[in-house]
Specification:
two-stranded parallel ribbon; globular; mainly alpha; 252 residues; single chain; two-stranded antiparallel sheet
Length: 252
């Protein structure tokens, strides 16, 4: 029995090391391609939205650990006459819609990959408030690092239901391999270029995941003392604008 568990542990450790090496090498090799695009997008965000250019938000990582994900900002910070933040569809700029639909807003997330918070491929990291809503099976998506793209993203992205997303994420957890990652990265590039599987009504905030009634009831006692965690010390907000954006749901 112990030999079986040791063998499985060594296989998983080897896959994790191979995946980590693959991520870093691919980012370094493609740096010459992505760096000019990164700088160009950053300059446009700075000219259209001002400072800061980054959006940072707490997300759920490996084994439920909280980390700060980086993205380019896509919204203004406009308030109404009562001092209330205006709806997302009002604050989301035309340029913001474009970089979301082309996933260019995800480029800063490559820093999360280099830091080890994320992988290039894996289940997309969801917001922290979803933690108490997962069923035991759904929480398995956190057995591996979250990704910039994933199996769910190339099989429907925003155009599929929450249940389908979880099913695809769990399938990836059980079937991950370097060859599958290469396939997902290739399919991601195809879909980004074609801008497929994007619901035009979800350029702003996606409908929140609410969990099933049974799951929520089962978790009431388990999470009775649960509170939204503080941002870890290594997560620094990029100015007042980033703090405002941090409160928003950005689940794509």
């Amino acid at each position: 029995m112990y030999i079986k568990y040791l063998t499985l542990y060594l296989i998983k450790s080897g896959l994790d090391l191979l995946k980590r090496t693959f991520d870093i090498l691919l980012i370094l090799i493609s740096a010459l391609l992505f760096l000019p695009v990164f700088i160009l997008v950053a300059l446009i965000v700075r000219s259209k939205l001002g400072s800061p250019i980054f959006f940072k938000q707490s997300r759920i990582g490996l084994n439920g650990r909280i980390f700060g994900i980086l993205k380019f900002r896509t919204m203004t910070n406009e308030f109404d006459k009562n001092g209330v933040l205006k709806p997302d569809n009002v604050r989301l700029t035309k340029f913001g819609k474009f970089i979301r639909s082309t996933s260019l807003d995800e480029l800063p997330g490559l820093w999360n990959v280099l830091k080890g918070d994320m992988s290039l491929v894996g289940p997309r990291p969801f917001i922290v408030e979803y933690l108490p809503l997962y069923s035991e099976e759904q929480s398995r998506r956190h057995e591996i690092k979250p990704g910039i793209t994933g199996w769910a993203q190339v099989n429907g992205r925003n155009a599929i239901s929450w249940d389908k997303k979880f099913d695809l994420d769990i399938w990836y957890v059980d079937n991950q391999s370097i060859w599958l990652d290469i396939k997902i990265l290739f399919l991601t590039m195809k879909k980004v270029i074609a801008r497929k599987d994007i619901d035009e009504n979800i350029h702003t905030t996606m409908e929140k995941f609410k969990g099933s009634a049974d799951t929520v009831n089962d978790n009431i006692e388990r999470f009775s003392d649960w509170k939204y965690p503080d941002i870890p010390d290594n997560v620094v907000d990029f100015g007042e604008s980033a703090k405002v954006d941090h409160k928003l749901t950005n689940d794509k």
